[in-house]
Amino acid sequence: MEFSLTTLGTASALPNVNRYPSAHVFDIHGRLFLVDCGEGCQVQLRRYGFSFAKIDNIFISHLHGDHIFGIFGLLSTMSLLGRTADLYIYAPRDFSSILNFFLAHFGDGVRYNIIHKVLNCATQELIFSSRTVEVYAFPLNHRISTFGFLFKEKEPKNNIHKWKMESACLTLKEIASLKDGNNVVRENGEVLEVTEYTYKPYNARSAAYCSDTAPFERLSSWIEGVDLLYHEATFAEDMSKMAKDTYHSTAQQAGFIAKTASVGKMIIGHYSSRYKDLNLLLNEAKNIFPETYLAKEGMKFEVPINKN
Amino acid sequence: MEFSLTTLGTASALPNVNRYPSAHVFDIHGRLFLVDCGEGCQVQLRRYGFSFAKIDNIFISHLHGDHIFGIFGLLSTMSLLGRTADLYIYAPRDFSSILNFFLAHFGDGVRYNIIHKVLNCATQELIFSSRTVEVYAFPLNHRISTFGFLFKEKEPKNNIHKWKMESACLTLKEIASLKDGNNVVRENGEVLEVTEYTYKPYNARSAAYCSDTAPFERLSSWIEGVDLLYHEATFAEDMSKMAKDTYHSTAQQAGFIAKTASVGKMIIGHYSSRYKDLNLLLNEAKNIFPETYLAKEGMKFEVPINKN
Asked: Annotated active-site positions of A, please?
């Protein structure tokens, strides 16, 4: 039961041969959630073996080119591949005119519905829910309307202790009830307690995505305790003035957010093209939050199942 | 004095990890002419060492996504790199609304002029002229308004035979006149004949670009005798019905065009993603026109100086 983040692009505004613009894939139980869609995203998806057919939901943090210019090619290719399934795109309000532009000029062969779900929340808000996962959006602090995303695995159903199943001769109905978390009262008055008969198979996992943003106080409360945090670290401290002016974070600031929010692990990315050696960024973040890792094109960060 | 074509992308509608969408660079005496701008073009330009600053003219054959989706990223990056020089984009009429869309949504920091020169010719027409090169556009036969391009090096100035320069004690003024192709009449009545004193240093070179198009009769007259022809070969003969229906050429048809137009060398590209082994396409074209070569990402085809 996969729960992972793969980074397809670590560049900020200026991509180069080794660094693609922002695009990320959350694989949650085999369902793919694409977050941001910079130029070249469709080729990066292919390069790292992601099936376009498994993507039904795309999340766009904001409408700067380095997060969106790959959407035209991706939508076209999905069309050429014969897609008919609905595609949901969660994006700021202005995405409507981008989508309308695309459909008017390049939408001739598009045979599937593209549904724009407008992001417009002032605080954390549930925007997607399936059998296995919930996605929340929350506002970030960038030059234009920008949103972060929180992916929360749903609590798994209880498992029944094997030895109890046999010794108590549980019926299918009793098993279903216990798995759902309800005590069972038998006809003879015997009570089978959920806490005695079942256990949680694993803890529900969570991950958050924060790009692009300047630091702000409320952010840590929205991502409190996530197992995995992707946070932008466009600049090092040498460029803290530039970071402030452009509403970005330094690696150190990202470290403070990870620490304050008590996350499990932090991945940094969205590197300014001026940094050839990324260890500068890594070390600045690690000084504050040791469990920091550098994102790299194609690198997958898995959140393992935790049974404790 | 370079005269070359580098292919940045050989894919047709569906790109993959090894095949980028259409984009090509003509380097003529160090000046770069970009033809088509598929997704990922800016990164391909970087990968093969082309300076964005040397591009002042972009030629867009038509407004299908696989020839244009890279323009947004390229224009943005030129802006971020601080461009101030005018940029000319030769493209069909509807490109205006694409450009307006770009400027309205992503044009905030753009500090250079982007001038759209509308392509609208029914026959071959001069669209660009500099000291070294002329560019002509001509209509192709595709599903939407589409144009091919002819790059013609200007005739070089005459060179003076060295031994004549010394024996006749030519003045600078006389040399300039002879180089320009004018006879010189000296005060004593002596006539210095251009034909006797000078020679053409090399033959002016030419190259044409034809993508996307179904074959049609007039095409060969517009590209007659070019040294280098890039021609699409989306399909092999097994898909000739599909080629006809989608207004594309088969490799064999490209071969016939090259042969009829008596070109020097033909490069084929714009391959359908169904062809993993391109030798099928190559061989079909070579059967008709032996001097056919396969385009490949990053491959440069030079037209050498011919002094005969």
From this structure: 66
Q: Which residue of B has its CA nearest to A67?
A: B73
Helix locations, A168-293, DSSP H:
172-179, 194-197, 219-222, 240-245, 251-260, 279-288
Question: What is the CB neighbour count within 10 angstroms for residue A27?
Answer: 17
CB contact (8 A) between residue A16 and residue B76:
no
DSSP code, position A237: G
pLDDT at residue B308 greater than cutoff 80: no
**ipTM of the modeled complex:** 0.93
- Contact criterion met (CB below 8 Å) for B157 and B124: no
The pTM of this model reads 0.94
Domain ranges of chain A: 3-156+202-302, 159-198
B9 touches chain A (CB under 8 A): no
- Shortest distance, CA B41 to any CA of chain A (angstroms): 9
User: Among 1.10.10.10, 1.10.3720.10, 3.60.15.10, 3.50.50.60, what is the CATH number of A3-156+202-302?
Assistant: 3.60.15.10
Instruction: Tell me the nearest-neighbour CA distance from B99 into chain A, angstroms.
Output: 11
Query: Tell me: domain B3-156+200-302, CATH 3.60.15.10, correct?
Result: yes
> pLDDT digits over B117-152, tens only?
999 999 999 999 999 999 999 999 999 999 999 999
| Closest by CA position to B22, among listed B220, B226, B234, B227 | B234
Query: Shortest Cα distance from A43 to chain B (angstroms)?
Result: 6
B98 touches chain A (CB under 8 A): yes
pLDDT digits over B147-184, tens only? Answer: 999 999 999 989 999 888 888 889 999 999 999 899 99
Residue B39 to residue A72, Cβ atoms within 8 A? yes
